[in-house]
Design brief:
With 162 residues, this protein is α+β, with helices and mostly antiparallel strands. It has 3 helices and 8 strands.
Length: 162
């Protein structure tokens, strides 16, 4: 089977599953078909992704993949959340992570920005940064809110703090 066919089928199957009552707040973030017939599917839910939801979605995909024989008999399927080590890709992920600390890498090569994700709209998001300036011998800290269009961002990562 070609990759395009498999991608289309995964999208169709997930769209149908996400119409079910317990999965209506779920959404596809990304998926990859890797060498060795390994399929990684990354999903998320506005209310938080549970292990049970991952298992049920995995079973749903497996049953159709087995029936259609898309990847043959030997394949690996992994359904999970994108986790904190993957960049935010969708506006819904930004909304879900409002209040968390993020690191934003602009596309234009300007310095990485770090701050608290304060808001996420349709075309842009807002972070609150602490800007340190010197006034004589004293350092002054100022909170500045900056709106960043999604299209100008190379990647946004959640900053994990312990």
């Amino acid at each position: 089977m070609d990759t395009f066919f498999i991608e289309e089928k995964i999208h169709e199957l997930l769209a149908a599953k996400f119409q079910e009552e317990h999965f209506q707040d779920c959404f596809l973030v990304d998926f990859h078909l890797l060498p060795g017939n390994k399929l990684e599917v990354f999903i998320d839910c506005d209310s938080g992704l549970t292990l049970e939801k991952c298992q049920r979605i995995s079973r749903h995909l497996e049953s159709h993949m087995d029936e259609g024989g898309w990847l043959g008999e030997n394949y690996a399927l992994e359904v999970s959340s994108p986790g904190l080590t993957r960049p935010l890709k969708l506006q819904r992920q930004y909304v879900k992570n409002v209040g968390r600390k993020v690191e934003v890498t602009p596309k234009d090569g300007s310095p990485v920005r770090e701050g608290i994700l304060k808001a996420a709209g349709e075309t842009s998001f807002t972070i609150e940064e602490i800007i340190v300036t010197k006034e004589g011998k004293k350092k002054k800290k100022t909170e500045v809110q900056t709106e960043l269009p999604y299209e100008q961002v190379k990647k946004t990562m959640i900053v994990i703090s312990f």
